Amino acid sequence: MSNSSLFACLRSLAGAAFLAGLAAQPTTAAAGEVTVFAAASLADALEEIEQRFEAATGHDLVISLAGSSALARQIQQGAPADIFISANPDWMDVLEKDGLLEAGTRFDLLNNSLVLIAHGREAKPLDISADLNLPEILGDNRLAMALVDAVPAGIYGKAALQSLGLWDEAEPRVAQSDNVRSALALVATGEAPYGIVYATDAVAEDNVTVVGTFPAESHPPIVYPVADLANRDSPAEEEFLAYLQAPDAREAFERQGFVVLDR
């Protein structure tokens, strides 16, 4: 056999061995990207969950935070989201009626509670009842709230004040923000002395004090539903929905004061 023929034979054998070696390698699932539209009040918990989920799965989690109403409208307009986590069932109901949810994927994920916060760390507790004198405690200042007719935290807050007979005197003094984290920031920076936010928001900010918790019966239950959106399906989306109730995610939610619901 000539040298050139021998070389060609060896090269062919080497190529076959290389391909056989590739075939013998274990296969791994391709990493995917999951875009999550989530209520702003979930910011701190989802930041931790994002890091843990990506480390555990290799998938890339892209989280967009805003008021549930704004996110729902973006989804209606075709925004490329995969998962939606709303701060109340109403906006999820809207998307479901529009046929924008993947059938059978919706479930209630979390509960929260509603609190009155004050600027600083040394504010005195207040009795959250029909006897609360808002004009006196506010003076010439404002009560920070999320949008009371659109954003869940604002809707719950308005309902609570109405239930206690306090809304008429509170309404002219309300400073409305696009989302609950913006309302929290107004109080944290001292631009408003008091605000109504979720209990979990207060945990995330060192420069506010919870001065009272609204009675649970003063507003509808605060429920966070989650669902896969009906635009595309991928194994990464299914993995993320399952991960939301895994021990790691549960710990992250509970650390922020959420109650994780069993599915």
TrEMBL record:
Gene Ontology terms describing biological process: molybdate ion transport
Secretion signal span: 1-31
Gene Ontology terms, MF aspect: metal ion binding; molybdate ion binding; tungstate binding
InterPro entries: ModA, ModA/WtpA
Keyword Metal-binding: yes
One Gene Ontology cellular component: outer membrane-bounded periplasmic space
Keywords, alphabetical: Metal-binding, Molybdenum, Signal
UniProt keyword annotation of Transcription present: no
Binding site for molybdate: S41, S68, A153, V180, Y198
Subunit structure, as described in the record: The complex is composed of two ATP-binding proteins (ModC), two transmembrane proteins (ModB) and a solute-binding protein (ModA).
Similarity-based family: Belongs to the bacterial solute-binding protein ModA family.
PANTHER family the UniProt entry points to: MOLYBDATE-BINDING PERIPLASMIC PROTEIN (PTHR30632), MOLYBDATE-BINDING PROTEIN MODA (PTHR30632:SF17)
Name of this protein: Molybdate-binding periplasmic protein
Record lineage: Bacteria, Pseudomonadati, Pseudomonadota, Alphaproteobacteria, Hyphomicrobiales
